[in-house]
Amino acid sequence: MAKLLAVSVGCAAPLDARAGDGGLRRVASAIRKSPVSGAVALGALGLDGDEQVDLSSHGGIDKAVYLYPAEHYPFWETVRGQAGVAGALPYGSLGENLTVSGLLEPQVWVGDRLRIGEVELVVTQPRTPCYKFDAHFGFRWASRMMVQSGYTGFYCAVVRPGRLAAGEQIDLVAGERTVSIEQAHRLKTRGAASRWFLG
Questions:
Q1: d(Cα 150, Cα 189) in Å, to the nearest integer?
Q2: How far apart are CA 77 and CA 98, in angstroms?
Q3: How many CA atoms lie within 13 A of 173 on its CB side?
Q4: 13: β partners
Q5: How far apart are CA 1 and CA 17, in angstroms?
Q6: How far apart are CA 150 and CA 127, in angstroms?
Q7: Each residue of 2-37: pLDDT tens digit?
Q8: Domains by residue range for the chain, with CATH
Protein backbone atom coordinates (compact mmCIF):
# COMPACT_ATOMS: atom_id res chain seq x y z
CA MET A 1 0.00 0.00 0.00
CA ALA A 2 1.41 3.38 -1.01
CA LYS A 3 1.45 6.17 1.53
CA LEU A 4 2.33 9.86 1.77
CA LEU A 5 4.96 10.17 4.50
CA ALA A 6 5.82 13.87 4.35
CA VAL A 7 4.85 17.09 2.59
CA SER A 8 7.79 19.48 2.19
CA VAL A 9 8.24 23.02 0.89
CA GLY A 10 11.18 25.38 0.49
CA CYS A 11 12.00 28.99 -0.33
CA ALA A 12 14.63 30.29 -2.72
CA ALA A 13 18.00 30.78 -1.03
CA PRO A 14 21.63 31.27 -2.14
CA LEU A 15 23.53 28.09 -3.02
CA ASP A 16 27.27 27.93 -3.83
CA ALA A 17 27.54 25.51 -6.74
CA ARG A 18 30.01 24.41 -9.39
CA ALA A 19 28.57 24.66 -12.88
CA GLY A 20 29.66 22.70 -15.95
CA ASP A 21 32.78 24.82 -16.46
CA GLY A 22 34.02 23.96 -12.94
CA GLY A 23 33.71 27.50 -11.68
CA LEU A 24 32.12 28.22 -8.31
CA ARG A 25 29.16 30.54 -8.45
CA ARG A 26 26.37 31.59 -6.14
CA VAL A 27 22.96 30.77 -7.54
CA ALA A 28 19.42 30.84 -6.23
CA SER A 29 17.79 27.51 -5.48
CA ALA A 30 14.78 26.18 -3.60
CA ILE A 31 16.15 22.62 -3.45
CA ARG A 32 16.24 22.76 0.36
CA LYS A 33 12.84 21.49 1.43
CA SER A 34 11.52 20.89 4.95
CA PRO A 35 8.48 18.90 6.07
CA VAL A 36 5.46 20.87 7.22
CA SER A 37 2.79 19.78 9.66
CA GLY A 38 -0.89 19.72 8.91
CA ALA A 39 -2.63 20.02 5.57
CA VAL A 40 -1.09 22.06 2.74
CA ALA A 41 -2.99 23.44 -0.24
CA LEU A 42 -1.90 22.19 -3.66
CA GLY A 43 -2.72 24.14 -6.80
CA ALA A 44 -1.97 23.66 -10.48
CA LEU A 45 1.58 25.01 -10.07
CA GLY A 46 2.53 23.42 -6.77
CA LEU A 47 2.22 23.59 -3.01
CA ASP A 48 1.47 26.73 -1.05
CA GLY A 49 4.71 28.05 0.44
CA ASP A 50 6.96 26.27 -2.05
CA GLU A 51 9.12 28.21 -4.48
CA GLN A 52 10.52 27.00 -7.81
CA VAL A 53 13.46 28.98 -9.16
CA ASP A 54 14.53 27.47 -12.48
CA LEU A 55 11.33 26.64 -14.33
CA SER A 56 13.27 25.12 -17.23
CA SER A 57 14.28 22.27 -14.92
CA HIS A 58 11.70 22.21 -12.15
CA GLY A 59 8.14 23.44 -11.83
CA GLY A 60 5.49 24.50 -14.27
CA ILE A 61 2.33 22.60 -15.14
CA ASP A 62 4.00 19.26 -15.99
CA LYS A 63 6.44 19.34 -13.04
CA ALA A 64 4.28 20.97 -10.40
CA VAL A 65 5.05 18.38 -7.72
CA TYR A 66 8.13 16.21 -7.18
CA LEU A 67 7.69 12.83 -5.45
CA TYR A 68 10.51 10.74 -4.02
CA PRO A 69 10.44 7.19 -2.58
CA ALA A 70 11.51 6.95 1.06
CA GLU A 71 12.94 3.50 0.26
CA HIS A 72 15.96 5.19 -1.36
CA TYR A 73 16.96 7.21 1.70
CA PRO A 74 19.28 4.51 3.16
CA PHE A 75 21.17 4.43 -0.16
CA TRP A 76 21.77 8.18 -0.04
CA GLU A 77 22.84 8.13 3.59
CA THR A 78 25.40 5.43 2.72
CA VAL A 79 26.69 7.29 -0.36
CA ARG A 80 26.99 10.55 1.57
CA GLY A 81 28.87 8.76 4.33
CA GLN A 82 31.32 7.34 1.79
CA ALA A 83 31.85 10.87 0.49
CA GLY A 84 32.62 12.10 4.00
CA VAL A 85 29.27 13.82 4.54
CA ALA A 86 27.76 12.15 7.60
CA GLY A 87 24.35 12.42 9.19
CA ALA A 88 20.80 11.23 8.77
CA LEU A 89 18.68 12.75 6.04
CA PRO A 90 15.27 14.13 7.02
CA TYR A 91 12.44 13.82 4.53
CA GLY A 92 12.60 16.55 1.89
CA SER A 93 16.39 16.22 1.60
CA LEU A 94 16.24 15.08 -2.04
CA GLY A 95 14.38 18.28 -2.88
CA GLU A 96 11.06 16.48 -3.07
CA ASN A 97 7.69 17.93 -2.22
CA LEU A 98 6.12 14.59 -1.36
CA THR A 99 8.03 11.77 0.29
CA VAL A 100 6.19 8.53 -0.42
CA SER A 101 6.46 4.82 0.26
CA GLY A 102 5.38 1.98 -2.01
CA LEU A 103 5.89 3.84 -5.30
CA LEU A 104 9.25 2.86 -6.79
CA GLU A 105 10.35 3.90 -10.29
CA PRO A 106 9.83 0.48 -11.95
CA GLN A 107 6.27 0.33 -10.53
CA VAL A 108 5.15 3.79 -11.63
CA TRP A 109 4.36 4.59 -15.26
CA VAL A 110 3.98 7.84 -17.15
CA GLY A 111 0.25 8.55 -17.22
CA ASP A 112 -0.59 6.78 -13.96
CA ARG A 113 -2.97 8.69 -11.69
CA LEU A 114 -2.27 9.09 -7.97
CA ARG A 115 -5.23 9.87 -5.73
CA ILE A 116 -4.32 11.27 -2.32
CA GLY A 117 -7.41 12.30 -0.38
CA GLU A 118 -9.11 15.03 -2.40
CA VAL A 119 -6.08 15.52 -4.66
CA GLU A 120 -5.38 13.74 -7.94
CA LEU A 121 -2.01 13.81 -9.72
CA VAL A 122 -0.79 12.39 -13.02
CA VAL A 123 2.75 11.06 -13.38
CA THR A 124 4.66 12.91 -16.12
CA GLN A 125 8.42 12.20 -16.07
CA PRO A 126 11.49 11.22 -14.04
CA ARG A 127 13.74 13.83 -12.49
CA THR A 128 16.97 14.74 -14.23
CA PRO A 129 19.39 16.13 -11.60
CA CYS A 130 21.50 19.22 -12.26
CA TYR A 131 24.67 20.67 -10.75
CA LYS A 132 22.66 22.23 -7.91
CA PHE A 133 21.97 18.73 -6.58
CA ASP A 134 25.72 18.16 -6.20
CA ALA A 135 26.11 21.38 -4.24
CA HIS A 136 23.11 20.64 -2.06
CA PHE A 137 24.33 17.15 -1.22
CA GLY A 138 27.91 18.22 -0.57
CA PHE A 139 29.86 16.18 -3.12
CA ARG A 140 30.45 16.53 -6.85
CA TRP A 141 29.19 13.15 -8.07
CA ALA A 142 25.77 13.15 -6.36
CA SER A 143 23.91 13.81 -9.63
CA ARG A 144 25.96 11.09 -11.33
CA MET A 145 24.90 8.64 -8.61
CA MET A 146 21.24 9.55 -9.13
CA VAL A 147 21.55 8.90 -12.86
CA GLN A 148 23.44 5.63 -12.48
CA SER A 149 21.23 4.26 -9.69
CA GLY A 150 17.96 5.23 -11.36
CA TYR A 151 16.72 6.49 -7.98
CA THR A 152 15.28 9.60 -9.58
CA GLY A 153 11.80 9.97 -8.17
CA PHE A 154 9.26 11.53 -10.52
CA TYR A 155 7.28 14.63 -11.34
CA CYS A 156 3.52 14.96 -11.47
CA ALA A 157 1.02 17.41 -12.86
CA VAL A 158 -2.02 18.33 -10.79
CA VAL A 159 -5.29 16.99 -12.17
CA ARG A 160 -7.45 17.90 -9.18
CA PRO A 161 -6.15 20.45 -6.62
CA GLY A 162 -6.89 20.26 -2.93
CA ARG A 163 -5.17 19.80 0.41
CA LEU A 164 -2.53 17.22 1.29
CA ALA A 165 -1.30 15.95 4.64
CA ALA A 166 1.30 13.39 5.69
CA GLY A 167 -0.14 10.01 6.59
CA GLU A 168 -2.68 9.82 3.78
CA GLN A 169 -2.99 6.71 1.64
CA ILE A 170 -2.11 6.93 -2.05
CA ASP A 171 -4.29 5.06 -4.54
CA LEU A 172 -2.64 4.38 -7.89
CA VAL A 173 -4.89 4.18 -10.95
CA ALA A 174 -2.99 2.67 -13.88
CA GLY A 175 -2.71 4.63 -17.10
CA GLU A 176 -1.85 3.19 -20.52
CA ARG A 177 1.36 1.67 -19.16
CA THR A 178 3.51 2.42 -22.23
CA VAL A 179 6.71 3.45 -20.42
CA SER A 180 7.65 3.25 -16.75
CA ILE A 181 9.53 5.98 -14.90
CA GLU A 182 12.55 3.66 -14.78
CA GLN A 183 12.40 3.09 -18.56
CA ALA A 184 11.88 6.79 -19.29
CA HIS A 185 14.92 7.65 -17.18
CA ARG A 186 17.14 5.04 -18.87
CA LEU A 187 16.10 6.20 -22.34
CA LYS A 188 16.70 9.85 -21.48
CA THR A 189 20.10 9.42 -19.83
CA ARG A 190 21.65 6.40 -21.55
CA GLY A 191 24.36 8.44 -23.30
CA ALA A 192 25.27 10.51 -20.25
CA ALA A 193 25.48 7.46 -17.97
CA SER A 194 27.79 5.73 -20.45
CA ARG A 195 30.12 8.75 -20.63
CA TRP A 196 30.30 8.99 -16.85
CA PHE A 197 30.96 5.27 -16.44
CA LEU A 198 33.75 5.31 -19.01
CA GLY A 199 35.27 8.44 -17.47
A1: 10
A2: 19
A3: 8
A4: 29
A5: 38
A6: 10
A7: 999 999 999 999 888 776 666 778 888 899 999 999
A8: 2-198 (2.40.33.20)
